[in-house]
Amino acid sequence: MTGAKVELYTTGWCGFCVRAKALLARKEVAFEEYRVDSQPALRAEMERRSSGARTVPQIFIDGHHVGGCDELHALEQRGELDTLLRRG
Length: 88
Fold this sequence. Notes:
By secondary structure, the chain is an alpha+beta fold. The protein has one domain: Glutaredoxin (3-Layer(aba) Sandwich). Helix content is about 40%, strand content about 20%. The chain is globular. The termini are close together.
């Protein structure tokens, strides 16, 4: 479905990360996952890209910061997620 580049900063123990990835999997969306718990240098990159957000997941679609799991699900509920995913 997607032409957009989807990136997620996650940890292995985060339930919100699991929920975000599950939504993308249901929509058959490929994504790049950056594990900030196994690669600590990625946490600084995540914070820089997300204007200081420190929680996971932090989600980007085509370089645009979407936010976290709740924001991703809100886009889906409003019917806006598919439009973002078709870009690219």
